[in-house]
Amino acid sequence: AQSVTQLGSHVSVSEGALVLLRCNYSSSVPPYLFWYVQYPNQGLQLLLKYTSAATLVKGINGFEAEFKKSETSFHLTKPSAHMSDAAEYFCAVRRNTGNQFYFGTGTSLTVIP
Amino acid sequence: EPEVTQTPSHQVTQMGQEVILRCVPISNHLYFYWYRQILGQKVEFLVSFYNNEISEKSEIFDDQFSVERPDGSNFTLKIRSTKLEDSAMYFCASSEHSRADQPQHFGDGTRLSIL
Q1: Residue A99: which pLDDT band, with cuts at 50, 70 and 90?
Q2: A44 and B41 in contact by Cβ < 8 A?
Q3: By the CB < 8 Å criterion, does B100 face chain A?
Q4: pLDDT tens across B57-83, in order?
Q5: Across B89-105, average pLDDT
Q6: Element (H or E) spanning B54, and its range?
Q7: CB B94 within 8 A of CB A43
Q8: Which chain A residues are within 8 Å of B105, Cβ to Cβ?
Q9: Chain B residues lying within 8 Å of A33, measured CB to CB
Q10: Regarding predicted confidence, which is higher, A3 or B114?
Q11: Neighbouring residues of B100: CB distance < 8 A, sequence distance ≥ 6
């Protein structure tokens, strides 16, 4: 079965510091991978997606993620954290067939001024 | 930018009562979904719906649950006899296509509290 694991349920960084949120997937074939962000009291907003076109994917708000097949990882990064980045981040995988997303447990990002 | 809207934002219901959660998907989208997130747990798939039929459902989506598209804009999730463990945030999502590389667009959710 497809799944994703997000290491670290809570991550704190200083404003201006590098953001690194980890996601590893389990799949027998390269899946489709997504990062979503959830701001307080809001729904899930798509940050970026990997669909095999390029291993380094750029998303909104300065975020990017790199697909590494050898490590079965799709970590989310941002060079310089901003206060507005404080939110819950979810990694999700989707099979080549079927409709459902499989979400990770989420990582709560806190940005310290 | 078009968005998925859900009502109400918060629903409080007595155990055993029926509840209907409402969603208005993005207008040109054809595929609709419900997910739930129990507090502190991961977002879980419930059901997908296309062409007025359920196309896929999870083990969570038992006989207590049903979905309907009663008109051209609304997409509803009904829980027939609510249980305490149904307390969760319920997210509606929609997508234009069912292709696996297509993202699903989510609403802000309905927080369901069962007393």
Answers
A1: confident
A2: no
A3: yes
A4: 999 999 999 999 988 789 999 999 999
A5: 89
A6: strand B53-57
A7: no
A8: 46
A9: none
A10: B114
A11: A32, A94, A95, A96, A97, A98
Count of alpha carbons within 13 angstroms of residue A18, beta-carbon side: 7
Task: Pick the residue of A97, A101, A107 with the most B CBs within 10 A to test the interface with B by mutation.
Answer: A101
β-sheet bridge partners, residue B43: B37
Record: contact A101-B4, CB cut-off 8 A: no
Cα–Cα dist B19/B15, whole Å: 10
Q: Which stretches does DSSP call E strand in A55-106?
A: 56-58, 64-68, 73-78, 87-94, 101-103
Chain B residues in contact with A100 by the CB 8 A cut-off are 33, 45, 48, 56, 58
pLDDT at A24 > cutoff 80: yes
Mean of all residue pLDDT scores within chain B: 93
Confidence of residue A49 (pLDDT cuts 50, 70, 90): very high
Radius of gyration in angstroms for the set of CA atoms belonging to chain B, rounded to a whole number? 13
Sort residue A60 into left (φ over 0), alpha (ψ -120 to 50) or beta: beta
